[in-house]
Amino acid sequence: MRLGSIWMAMILAGVIGCTDNTDTDTDTDTDTDTDTDTDTDTDTDTDTDTDTDTDTDTDTDTDDQVQDVQDDTMTVGTEVTVEDVVVTGLGSAGFWVEEAEGGEHSGIWVFVAPEPEWRETHPEVQRGATVNITGTKTEYNRDGEWILSLTQIDASAGTISVVGSAATPIPTTVVTMEDLQNPETAEAWEGVLVTVENAEVVNPQAGYGEWIVADGDGNEINIDDEIYNPFYDMWHSTFDTYTSITGIVHNTFDLYKLEPRDNADLQGYTSTLAKARDLSPGDITITEIMYNPEGGGDDYGCEWFEIYNNRSDDVDLIGLTVSNHNPDETSDQFLIKYPTIIPANSYGVIGKRFPGYWDATDSESSCYAYAQVFSPDGYFGGDINLGNDKEESLTLDVIDGTTETRIATAPSFNNPTAAGSSWQADQGSTDAKSIEDSSAWCGARTVIGTTGDLGTPGAENSKCMR
């Protein structure tokens, strides 16, 4: 009952029953006056105040709040219903949702199925959609492998209904990397869309599609590629900076990571090095090719080629495509995805496969003998074979969609030297014009350490003897 109604009832009661309010007087006066004044003034105060003002909040809003699921208000295994939450991003096994107002504990991961095919059964679930979800609160820790579990709504046996679209974007909160690096403070932001500012790339390839940024105080956070991999847009290197990075805070493998959703989430990118897309033909040249190793490692796994940076500044070859062209006009290609920095006016070596094959501390590694003498500056994977028995040519290209720009070309070759000897441009030949003339090439004459192979990986070539 509201306060005004109480006062009115009291006033009315006073007016109606003022003659004998309780009147328990049985009036035994023997006055035969038949006035049986039993005082039927049944002042029962009929104001029973039923007050049908159903102040019971007939709003049958029975849905749960994400905040209740994320904190300790709700126990694991509880059936959950959240309504009108906004989809903020799509992952391989589910999606993230957030309460429209944002803030701490307002977002959560929704598990749907272990495979990306869930999107085929729920094509209507898209970023910006508002959805109703029924499921179960669970804590995922990879069967006990993780110390920090991921709070989630398991909707694999529940329901997901799209009911509209968000009128306005979810507001993002600026948080510090220090807060996200500390599990005790990061937990409040799990599943929430946030922004970090003034980020410097300290590790452009941390493995598994992740890269690491830091603030000015040394606090770091991993940037993950569950939703979006910025490599093809940014080709970032160490010391590159962003004014801000926006993403969803996600917890995997005991680390709180940031999940950018697209290129718009990465703002104010500044690079300190020239990248592949900044190169012009002739800026770098191919100066030596070891297509048939013998003493330095196995023929298949330890091939390498040398390049020369003709620029007056350092170059990162990240984003450059290595192309080996075959006689049938097909090409085997490899996109360099790892930082491959070649200093100004210097040589560099690109080795086959990956660093583990060139481990100078492991005598069982494929290219152990070579690794005692030099370490490649970058790698071209395992799908390109520099063949020994057919006419081939090697190029370095920038491929952007349907546009292809050839940056460097070596002359075609077909087993021009003996096994264990590289094929090299003449000493001092580093410019594109002289490099592309096959008459300027010859077999190397300098022994590579104790391998018995001949070549000058990462150094000036031998002089060709005519």
Helix content: under 10%
If you consult CATH, what is the topology of the largest domain? Immunoglobulin-like
Tally the structural domains: 3
Quick one: biggest sheet?
6 strands, mixed
- Cα(first) to Cα(last) distance is 109 Å
Structure annotation, total helices: 8
What is the gyration radius calculated from CA atoms?
37 Å
Q: State the fourth-level CATH superfamily of the largest domain.
A: Lamin Tail domain
- Could you say what the CATH architecture of the largest domain is? Sandwich
Question: Uncertain spans, ≥5 residues at pLDDT below 50?
Answer: 1-59
Strand content: 25-35%
Determine the structural class based on helices, strands and strand pairing.
mainly beta
CATH class categorisation of the largest domain: Mainly Beta
Strand line-up across the major sheet = 20-19-14-13-23-24
User: What's the β-strand tally?
Assistant: 24
Question: What is the average per-residue confidence, as pLDDT, rounded to a whole number?
Answer: 87
Estimate the global geometry from the Cα principal axes: elongated
What key phrases describe this protein's structure?
466 residues; mainly beta; OB fold (Dihydrolipoamide Acetyltransferase, E2P); Immunoglobulin-like; 3 domains; six-stranded mixed beta sheet
What does this protein structure show overall?
It is a single chain. The chain is mainly β and 466 residues long. It has three domains: 66-165, Beta Barrel (OB fold (Dihydrolipoamide Acetyltransferase, E2P)); 173-267, Bacterial OB-fold (OB fold (Dihydrolipoamide Acetyltransferase, E2P), Beta Barrel); 277-443, Immunoglobulin-like. The chain is 9% helix and 32% strand. It has eight helices and 24 strands. It has helices spanning 3-16, 66-70, 118-121, 177-181, 183-186, 231-234, 368-371, 432-435; strands spanning 79-90, 94-98, 107-111, 129-140, 150-165, 173-174, 193-207, 210-214, 220-223, 241-252, 255-259, 266-267, 284-290, 304-309, 315-316, 321-325, 331-335, 341-342, 347-351, 378-379, 393-400, 403-409, 423-425, 441-443. The protein has a six-stranded mixed sheet. The longest helix is centred in the first third of the chain and has 14 residues, at 3-16. The protein is elongated, with a radius of gyration of 37 Å. The model is unreliable at 1-59 (pLDDT under 50).
